[in-house]
Amino acid sequence: MSHNNLTYAVVNVATDLPNINFSQVGETNGNTIRKSLDDLLFIIKWSTEPTFITNGTVIPSEIMTHEEALTEMATPEWTPPI
Fold it and tell me: In whole angstroms, what is the distance from residue 13 CA to residue 82 CA?
């Protein structure tokens, strides 16, 4: 599956992580998610929208394409300076 065909979402670690059904997203568990440097946000990806989003259990702060996610993760909030 191409990453270009996936949808990405930014969600809150404290309120949303316990509600993620990892069988519906591209990550396998809480240890494999990409977190922001302040550990407040994380990104999930999917090819079919997860039920926890469609039913409103988890409300992403942002939904992105692959390109938008790459741009977001290149910011200082997600990637430490070299």
Answer: 25
Checking if the pLDDT of 1 tops 90, the result is no
What type of residue is 34? R
Q: Where are the domains of the chain?
A: 3-73
**How far is residue 32 from each of residues 17, 28, 45, 54, 55, measured CA to CA in Å?**
12, 6, 12, 23, 24
pLDDT at 22 > cutoff 70: yes
Backbone angles phi, psi at 34, to 5 degrees: -95, 115
pLDDT tens digits along 38-60: 999 999 999 999 999 999 999 99
Give the span between the Cα atoms of 1 and 26, in whole angstroms. Answer: 11
Calculate the CA 34 to chain-centre distance.
Answer: 7
